[in-house]
Specification:
4 copies of one chain form a homotetramer. By secondary structure, chain A is mainly alpha-helical. In chain A, about 75% of the residues lie in helices and about 0% in strands. Chain A contains 10 helices and no strands. In chain A, helix 1 (about 5-20) crosses helix 2, helix 4 (about 50-75) packs across helix 7 (about 115-125) and helix 9 (about 155-175) runs antiparallel to helix 10 (about 180-205). The radius of gyration of chain A is 19 Å and the shape is globular. Chain A starts with 6 loop residues before the first helix and ends with a helix. The model of chain A has no long low-confidence stretch (mean pLDDT about 85). At the A-B interface, helix 6, helix 9 and helix 10 of A face helix 6, helix 9 and helix 10 of B. Chain A binds a DNA duplex through helix 3.
DNA sequence: TATGAATGAGAATTCATTCAT
DNA sequence: AATGAATGAATTCTCATTCAT
């Protein structure tokens, strides 16, 4: 949720996210459900949004941005790449308990629905500072580069997407019942963090 | 497409896949569109499927299975892990040109729509031999184990999911305009194959 | 069921009556249900009937005629009006256990559905000897007239319709839980038979 | 039509009754026909009714109640049983000109269609004062009992159903072309009224 | 003659969107 | 500005009927 949004817009965004977190299928969400949950009139929503897709895509977009920003801000406390990656994985895990939100968000952004089309439009129009997942990861990696290390643009891109894929991978694995156990998860995170660090060292060498 | 399917079922599956490959949003596909494309009457579809979801989920499911099987069969020609991974990446790349099908398939399987729910049901009911992505990758890795190597179940799972995430990663990267160039892609595949082999060696050691 | 009907026609009639007796709503019966029950192909039914309505109306019509004829034939054993009316009431009661068939039949004949329209057409085209409820009752009353009694056509019509209404009345009452008891029913029949006889005596005097 | 109904509900009820009176078969009435006649949008009907059956059953139910109430109120002007029965017969006759409404209403209530099922549900939920046909007739008979007369519950039930059957009987007979003549009908009513009175005297004696 | 696969017209119902209040 | 009643286009699904085998 961003500062420039009116209370009604926020209410709509909030309502969409709640329904999303409760497991609703976004493509079959109705305006009545959204406005009902938001506690405002159906007509009112159309004073602020041109159509249903804008409500949903907007909610996901600003929520995603806000989540990314929170993570990025939280990262400043972490000293090294290993801990940073671990922090991101933990943040993801917390979100996951809310009906797999991040994973679902990523899915939605890469399907061909009206919602994802709108989100891509929003992404293109977004102001510079707002960051989307892969961009954030790229930034983490850039921040990590010591003076004596060099990394080509391709290398950086590869590393950030590889990191992204590992995070996704973690998200997928912890949905499995074999990873309900806290310690198992911790071990998995350790593996992933190490893997990322090693790859970073090798490529940035 | 499987052998036991009647021509009409195949026509429906074929139609769904064509529309999917043309970029249609599966959750807003209509029965009229599907049967129109399949060249059969609307009512006919309901002789073979109980509802729309079954048509779409069925199409994706059997198509996915068939794609996986093709890859697995093709793998037998490849001698080592490096070449096998390369083969999988290439197979994926070919599919990708058809509207990122595999990626989208994975996405659909993990969202909360009716279609994905149906696919998960189908997955549970599937016969043993049919393999889904991660299972296939696990098999590839198992096949690779030499007599003198040991690998815990956890290690195997991690490796297969890691491999899966790398493949996903490749899929995402080649959507980027910077990887339109064939040589760039080849180089990327080389990196990935090497990374996979190295990780395999380390963990199975 | 009439002698001139082919086995397939009989099978259809039989199927409709079974479904009817099982409580099915005739206006929502489907051809598939009927032919499925009859054990013949859907197309076959159309070799013998021009449409669905003909199947249902025909079944009801010939079944009704056959029921009426059975009663009329059974009546010959009864010596006087009192016993004859009692016989009709008992026959009705037996039928009633089969999902109120006679009552429902009468209802169907007097609503405005396609089925009843068809039955009325059939009634007009029927051959002389076939008798419908009120006609049968009229005949019973005529048979009862002694040589020294006279009865105008109006009187006869009134008496037969009055008798009909009393039979209907019996049919309705025994659906009530207060008349589950056999003795209660017997008493009720006695009342009705007496009432009919008295009215007959008065008017035919 | 009841006071508590919104204008749209009334419009639906009105439309259903008009179509009914014009002879339409209720079980093949469509929502499009009803809303078209009511002059409202198809979707609007669903704001007030959960489905088509509720529209039709509701229309019949509230119309029936209102008709019964009108008759019962009109009865207060009549001094004796004979005149009261005559009044009911005349009221019925008037309704009959509108496509046999009362008879058809009774038929519908006793078939196995969705509509009748819904009406029976409504009947169970109805408030006390609202009366259905047989209840009204029972009330007429109760009102008629003098202080010196006694009548068992069974007797009362028999009499009211007998009266009901005679009314039905009148309804059936006047559909016949032989009773198109006004005088014939008057004579028939006289007969029926006398019959009812006589039976009442005998049983209540 | 018997069949049932194929069909498409038609029905109920939903829901995004508008607009009078 | 806020509302929600009204709307009808659009969608799913059913089923009587046909016709090639």
């Amino acid at each position: 949720m961003n500062r420039e949004h009116s209370p009604k817009e926020k209410a709509i965004y909030q309502a969409v996210m709640e329904l999303f977190e409760e497991g609703a299928d976004l493509s079959s969400l109705t305006v009545a459900e959204i406005t009902g949950r938001a506690g405002i009139g159906k007509g009112t929503a159309y004073e602020y949004f041109s159509d249903k897709e804008e409500m949903i895509a907007g909610a996901l977009f600003y929520n995603g941005i806000s989540f990314i920003r929170q993570i990025y801000e939280g990262l400043s406390k972490e000293k090294n790449l290993n801990d940073k990656v671990n922090f991101v994985l933990l943040a993801m895990e917390q979100q996951m308990t809310k009906a797999n939100c991040i994973l679902r968000l990523i899915h939605i952004m890469s399907d061909n629905s009206m919602i994802s089309q709108r989100m891509r439009v929003m992404e293109k129009e977004r102001v510079e500072e707002e960051m989307f997942p892969v961009d954030m990861l790229k930034q983490i990696l850039k921040d990590e580069l010591k003076d004596d290390q060099t990394l080509s643009e391709e290398g950086l891109t590869y590393l950030s997407v590889s990191l992204f894929s590992k995070i996704l991978c973690y998200g997928m694995m912890i949905r499995d019942e074999r990873f309900l156990d806290k310690e198992k998860r911790e071990e998995l995170r350790k593996w992933i963090c190490q893997g990322v660090c090693k790859e970073f060292e090798e490529i940035s060498a």
